[in-house]
Amino acid sequence: MKPDVQADLPSAVPPELAGKIVISVDAMGSDKGPAAVVAGCAMSAKKNPDIGFILHGREAELRPLVVKRHLLDRCIIRDAAEVVTMDAKPSVVMRRGKDTSMWSAIESVRNGEATVAVSCGNTGALMAISMVRLRKLPGVNRPAIACLWPSRNDTGYAVMLDVGADIRADERDLLQYALMGASYARNGLSIERPRIGLLNVGTEEHKGHPELKAAQGLIAEAAPHSDFEYVGYVEGGDIPRGKADVIVTDGFTGNVALKTAEGTASLIRELLGQAFRHTILSRIAALLAVTSLRRLAKRTDPRRVNGGVFLGLNGTIVKSHGSADATGVSAAIKLAFQLAQAGFSDRLAARVASTSAPRQDMP
Amino acid sequence: MKPDVQADLPSAVPPELAGKIVISVDAMGSDKGPAAVVAGCAMSAKKNPDIGFILHGREAELRPLVVKRHLLDRCIIRDAAEVVTMDAKPSVVMRRGKDTSMWSAIESVRNGEATVAVSCGNTGALMAISMVRLRKLPGVNRPAIACLWPSRNDTGYAVMLDVGADIRADERDLLQYALMGASYARNGLSIERPRIGLLNVGTEEHKGHPELKAAQGLIAEAAPHSDFEYVGYVEGGDIPRGKADVIVTDGFTGNVALKTAEGTASLIRELLGQAFRHTILSRIAALLAVTSLRRLAKRTDPRRVNGGVFLGLNGTIVKSHGSADATGVSAAIKLAFQLAQAGFSDRLAARVASTSAPRQDMP
């Protein structure tokens, strides 16, 4: 009878999008409104004929935008009356958010229509709904949010996690972060054997909290049979230095580090602008250097590296910046597509399961 | 008999430097050697006729440098045969470091010849010797290292502490950091009523670790009678934003944030350099913009903001960057002079004592 049970599962791609890799998109979460999100979908659809979308939100608003962007044959619209606001409390959304576009977008991952969902909305609410509806992978205690940092690596980016899913992490959580981060680097950045570093205040053995020392032991032990290399402790300055492809830390430290780096980059951009407006000569220089400066801005603008990824759930969620414009949304969709195409959700689940098995045997 | 006991105390400025504000300087700790340190002293001496120095290190090496820089009448040399290396273990230096220039420099603060010492040497060893020889101020559980950040503040800088004295801090330590940071901002940056922020992963009340919530209560309660304003939680991005003059955090988070910001600034400088070398047009632009770019480099170069300050001890220690050149050393000495002139060590002690009194009454 097993095949029948399988057939009854609410799985698989809707027939209208057969043959496509389907991304579930919360169309209402962006600060810039649904027009920016649909425009981002259209940019991605144009570049990649294999993408299909399930768009969640107010159908009356979305349909004209979809028609305007010639996306009718590439997407399905799922009507959702409500929108999660940026200041909504996660606990409230979890109880009363069933009619929101965010909830509906996650539901498409839950029922197997898509393996990855994209939302620009409220991070806390997105994580809360994802936890409740998708549930944690067996063997994962704390899901994590992974983000990409500009780095001197060959790929130009390093993965860091957790950057804010949970403020705490013990040594076993940090081991899971290492495994999940390695899997993400393999599938999202095509790094076959990622180098993992553990964030600390120094690289000497005796430094740091006791859970870091314990995590160091667990990660080093897991490395040989997990296709990653453990490079030891790394410091804050090593994150952009390319010393590791994946930087593992707790969500408190990771969140502070991420926001500090963004704040620093933003201050330098501002001072750079001031420097170039300072004299007539420097204004001329700015005109001559305009393309070079644009190239720099592109490389260091956090919006270009758009998409924090929720790891450790049954399904993958890409969180785009709330202020993302069409280009930003398109970048998040590109990442979601790449992960969906690689079968990332299943691979990650298998990886975590294989390594958590010995753990379950432990007292 | 009390006056006699007082007269016997090994206090006060050596007669050769009578009338000067005396800074005790570890002349051997810099990566660039004693020549850079003595050159830095000479720069400061030239700018400021009120400074006198006690230089600690190998007299045979120091004397010719002092003669060359015309510093003979502005300083005393204290011969110390040994040097603390950058990779020396703090615990080892604490046991066997009595003959080092670093130990000797701290000893001058201990015996009252100077109220502030400057060293470019090994941070861990410097903190360890300072703890043992100067002892903690009554009421202080964990001393802290405070540093200055480029900021959008009126003064151009914000104070952050702890950036690495201790990896842990409970709510009472964080309160002490707030008091000490406020005192530093008042005496070092001349901010009469500093705005204090507590570093967290969000500004909402419910965010963060339990000790942060407890610290928030204590700091807010202390604010009205401590001449500072408490502005609430701040995030990583707020550090350079000018939202607070003093940012309070534990030494683990503070150290990661500081090094992450330095690493980010360094990556952007590198990418900026690449951008300007990219085309002939951008090379010409770089030539035209050279003074503007230098101004920017000056503003964002961490070496210009030279001097982490150890707070919470009987005496003040300024830790200069190990790689500081004469300009960097001179910046650290300027800060040390400013603090010594303001009577900072005594003021800080009084401030901590007045606020820790109610604490000692508590169960």
Automatic annotation (TrEMBL), chains A, B:
Pathway recorded for this protein: Lipid metabolism; phospholipid metabolism
Alphabetized SUPFAM superfamilies for the sequence: Isocitrate/Isopropylmalate dehydrogenase-like (SSF53659)
Name under which the protein is recorded: Phosphate acyltransferase
Purpose: Catalyzes the reversible formation of acyl-phosphate (acyl-PO(4)) from acyl-[acyl-carrier-protein] (acyl-ACP). This enzyme utilizes acyl-ACP as fatty acyl donor, but not acyl-CoA.
Catalytic activity as recorded in UniProt: a fatty acyl-[ACP] + phosphate = an acyl phosphate + holo-[ACP]
Gene Ontology biological process terms from the UniProt entry: fatty acid biosynthetic process; phospholipid biosynthetic process
KW S-adenosyl-L-methionine (keyword) present: no
Family the entry assigns: Belongs to the PlsX family.
GO-annotated cellular components: cytoplasm
GO-annotated molecular function: phosphate:acyl-[acyl carrier protein] acyltransferase activity
Lineage, highest ranks first: Bacteria, Pseudomonadati, Pseudomonadota, Alphaproteobacteria, Rhodobacterales
EC numbers for this chain: 2.3.1.274
Subunit record text: Homodimer. Probably interacts with PlsY.
Localization terms from the record: Cytoplasm
This protein's UniProt keywords: Acyltransferase, Cytoplasm, Lipid biosynthesis, Lipid metabolism, Phospholipid biosynthesis, Phospholipid metabolism, Transferase
Key word Acyltransferase present: yes
InterPro entries: FA_synthesis (IPR003664), Phospholipid_synth_PlsX-like (IPR012281)
